[in-house]
User: What shape does this take?
Amino acid sequence: MMKNLPKYLSLFIFVSFIFAISSKQVFAATLYLSPASGSFSSNFDVTVSVDPQGSSVAGVDAIIKYDPEKIEAQLIQNGAFEQYLSKEINKTTGTISIRAYNTTTLVSSVASVGKITFKPLVSGSTVSLTFLYTPTAQGAQPAGDDSNIASGGKDVLTGVTGATYTLSGTATANPTPPNQPAPNTGVGATSPAPTPTPKTGALENTLIVLSLSLSLLGVGRILSKNE
Assistant: This one.
């Protein structure tokens, strides 16, 4: 027994070490936006992605804030998840909400949560997109009022990365089509002369008089023959 003690002791230490690692294993997952920066003068797309970082993700709540006076969120397209509980845009508060989950296969690698289309409203300014996220204790129950990543019924979101963009221009109004100038309605403007309408009254009167004359002439000839 004493002879095998070093062997048993080594095995005990190894098993204890493995158990300690397993019990302290911390899963972490993050949310980020791409591109993280850029300059845009017209509509542009921003992808919301999840990086499980070793977790098996069942669902994501991505809540994003933006300045509605500088950009306008117009459209949310589905990402790689199977089901979408909601895809909402509040243009008054500048809040975007995407809630997605999988029912058959858990997400274990980087995946798109959704794609958002934005329209610049103010030229020569910058705008930031940020996740509404409050760090919570590791493994806490997912909350419903901020961003979360659900894995095994627990929230494993440990970090978020937003984005900042430069707005270099805005859409311009459609110009007046060429060769079609706007009408002049100012002082001194003249209206085009109306196209004269041919007068047909005189011709009609002439035909009527001629017809009566021929009729009278024919009557006169008949009377002269009878005499």
The domain at 27-167 is CATH 2.60.40.680 (Immunoglobulin-like). The first strand starts at residue 29 and ends at 34.
